Amino acid sequence: MNLLSYIVSRLLQMIPVVIGVSLVAFLAIHLVPGDPVQLMMHGRATPETLQAAHAKLGLDQPLLVQYWNFIRNAATGSLGTSIIQNADVGKIVGERLLPTVLLLVTSAVFAILIALPLSIIAARRSDQLADHVIRLLGIIGFAMPPFWVGIILMLFFGIYLDWFPISGYGRSFGDRMYHLVLPSLTIALFLAPILIQSLRAAILDVMTAEYITVARAKGLGPWRVLIKHALRNALMPVTTILAVNIGWLLSGAVVVEYLFSFPGLGSLLVRAVGQRDYPVIQGLSLVFAILVLFVNLLADLSYMLIDRRVLKA
Amino acid sequence: MTVRKSFESLGGWSRHALFASAFILTAFSLAAVSPEARAEGIKRGGTLIMARPDEPLTFDPFIPGDNGSIYAIEQVCDALVEADDSGRGLRPGIAESWEMSPDGLTYTFKIRDAKFSNGDPVTVDDVVFTLKTLSDPSKYLAFVLKPVKNITAVDDKHVKVELKEPYAPLLSALSAYAASIVNKKAYEASPEKFGTSPVCAGPFMVESYERGSTVILKANPYYWDKGADGKPLPYLDGVELKYVPESNSRVLGLRNGDYDMISTVAFNQAKALQSDSNLVVESTPIFRLDYVYLNHQKKPLDNKDFRLALNYAADREAILKAVYFGYGEVPNSYMPKVNFHSDTVPVIPFDLAKAKELVQKSGYDGTPIQIMVDTGNAPSRQVATILQQGWEAAGVKSEIVEMDVGTAWTMTTKGDYQAYVSYITSDINDTDELATIQADVTAGSQAFFTWYDNKDVQKMLTEARREPDPAKRAALYAKVQEIVYNDAYSIPLNFAPVINGSQAYVKDLKQLANGWWWLQKVWLDK
Question: Which residue among B213, B252, B437 sits closest to A263, beta carbon to beta carbon?
């Protein structure tokens, strides 16, 4: 199959999935009791006010009509207007998209930077002391809640050493990267153990393959065999794990964004759900669905870069 | 300043207004309420960096009901009448002075020579536009101007507000955030744009507004009010309002020197923060009451003896110690301590024997009552647990149910609950707003979702609203307080204060009882 038609067909497959996700999200949030106007006014609204506000927002219409309006507008590129913020949802979500994407990318980079050397060492010294220590650390890292890890990182790197800012997002690009260090590290420490585990297993698995034996027979040193021949194949499952976990990572980002006062999509979602800001929730569910699907597509495409055989299959 | 003191000073002018017909209230009599500022030693300049748990969602004064927006709007916009620096009294704002007709049905406001942050003069057109917009029933705070019949410009300096019936709380209502005077031209051009870059006439103006993170305010160069040095306020060059929802993060940031001030320190963190000598930690009473809402429509809560029993079996001292770490005061009212609060109503004591007796008398059949708390709200959960133990000892069975706050609130407004651990705050410094909302079932929100229906109380509240004499109003509200509280309207828990922390060099910082902060006179001694 040619690469371009493959991408196009994958993109087309996304459409029903995105519609499905948006429908489920729409129904879920509307079926839970909640009235954005009542919530906003904390009960101050009189019945006339409520009625007038509901009519203005279109909340007095049947659910299916409301959903149809949402889909129709979304198809023309408009995600509607936030009930609470009285601003364009596309704009609100757009402002938050980049910080979250940056957070996820830097977290993934940190996680790989931590996981790669450790898993190589663990595989190289499998069932020896170094391996056991790394695996134990991995279990500990995975077991610690990100919320708590974040506070510990804040205390140590932010307050005690005073190396990194502990909250906010910064203004210039450099400043932003600087602000991203601790939140990314918090997510990375949670993600790295999963990567280490699979990478170690994959390396050990690959090491038994015949071509490795061949490489060894050629007289290559053990490190060279590992890095040059084994790692490339072992990286495949890591890409999968990162891609599969993207949805889960997004949800993990919520806690971290909250802790570090980070203006991303996660913190926006939590607030929007609490306030029943339906247009924002619907807009976000669309964006999340597209983000997850897109990352998975990228992962599949990256397999092709790592292993050309996938393209031929 | 104590409640009573500011009430007297407020009462003083109102009585005067009553006896002298068409008495013109000058700025001086109100200016005397606010404490004089010290001219010497005040340093101008600098930016105050403040971390708070909420963020503004919009600067459009007609939309919001959330504190994140309201407190920020208050820094940027002035209304005709403004809260004073304690939040308990009033002072002139965009209106330099005002007069009331002898029948109390017409108020005429003289508009001062003020300018908006874009340099436009504040005109009577802007004032009329603002108040008319707010009166539109689709605006959320429209009810505060419900008794208003007509709003007109008399000439280019005076605006007349005509009422359908005497309405004593009018001035307080006009001090609400939603009555902030907006620049008509800018608002009409685009309400959405106004939401992010408002054109108002308050001490500060919005320089940048990054949702989810930071609002940068800078001094409004055209602000009308003057500092102790005779030059325009504010003293600060600007304020950065940082949105830091996590309580630990705020405290750590203050300790680290990242913030000059943090608002809303968690009760369990305040004591530890106090031990740091570089910091000032202050607990201030505000117009807030934490209480358990009771739905009088649901059995067995329809029975007054049963509701009273729940009150007698509520160990409020224990709650104050365990949940609030001693911050606050056991309440003697069904509503927050606003201006006409009476201290003489005795607190219902913790008395299990009395509670048991009342449970017997009520004919309770042993069906458990459900007490609802917001998911993830640890203090509410703790309150519910302490209440549950007391009730169990008095022979009342109960179950705690957790709901996310949006669901819990909506179930409450629909009457689909029995008891709900929550709170209420007042937007304005007049008892009328909450007394009416909470205790008058005909006012539109079902006596704040209790369905408490007492005709005598409704009559007294209507009377109090129309009564211009503050002493008579005070007597009526005290009576209402006593009746409603002893009807076991709810289970009041705590007059919960707010605790702020700041660096020692932050001077003249004041927490207003309405919830926001008096930043226009803050200066940095560094």
Answer: B213
Pairs across A and B, CB distance < 8 A: 156
CB contact under 8 A, B64 and A40: yes
Positions of chain A with pLDDT lower than 70, given as ranges:
1, 306-313
Buried-state track B431-464, b at ≥16 Cβ within 10 A, e below 16: bbbbbbbbbbbebbbbbbbbbbebeebbebbbeb
Nearest CA in chain B to A53: B138
| Residue B239, strand partner residues | B48, B217
Contact across the interface for B256 and A159, Cβ inside 8 Å: yes
Determine whether the interchain pair A95/B242 forms a contact, defined as Cβ–Cβ distance below 8 Å.
Answer: no
Q: What is the pLDDT of residues B213-261, one digit of tens each?
A: 899 999 999 999 999 888 899 999 999 999 988 888 899 899 989 999 9
Instruction: Please tell me the distance from the alpha carbon of residue B450 to that of residue B294, in angstroms, as a whole number.
Output: 6
Cis status of the peptide bond prior to B234, with omega within 30 of 0? yes
Question: CB contact, 8 Å: B62 with chain A?
Answer: no
Identify the residue among B190, B208, B240, B409 best suited for mutation to test binding to A, counting A beta carbons within 10 A and taking the highest.
B409
Nearest in space to A195 (alpha carbons), one of A304, A83, A115: A115
Is the ipTM higher than 0.85? The answer is: no
How, if at all, do strands B81-83 and B498-503 pair?
Answer: unpaired
Angle at the Cα of A192 from the Cα atoms of A186 and A195, rounded to 5 degrees:
155
Residue-wise pLDDT for B86-116, tens only, equals: 888 899 999 999 999 998 899 999 999 999 9
Dump the DSSP string for A230-298.
IHHHHHHHHHHHHHHTHHHHHHHHHHHHHHTT--SHHHHHHHHHHHT-HHHHHHHHHHHHHHHHHHHHH
Which tokens belong to A306? Answer: 């790592």
Q: Is the four-CA dihedral A253, A256, A260, A261 of positive or negative sign?
A: positive
Q: Does B330 contact chain A (CB < 8 Å)?
A: no
Cβ contacts (< 8 Å) between A57 and chain B: which residues? none
Task: Tokens for B165, please give them.
Answer: 């019936």
The Cα B29–Cα B14 span in angstroms is: 11
C-alpha span between A181 and A187 (Å, rounded): 10
> Could you please report the per-residue DSSP string of B308-353?
HHHHHT--HHHHHHHTTTT-S---SSSS---TT--S-SPPPP--HH
Are A261 and B246 in contact (CB < 8 Å)?
A: yes
Is B58 touching A (CB cutoff 8 A)?
Answer: yes
C-alpha distance from B9 to closest chain A C-alpha (Å) = 29
C-alpha A67/C-alpha A85 separation (Å) is: 20
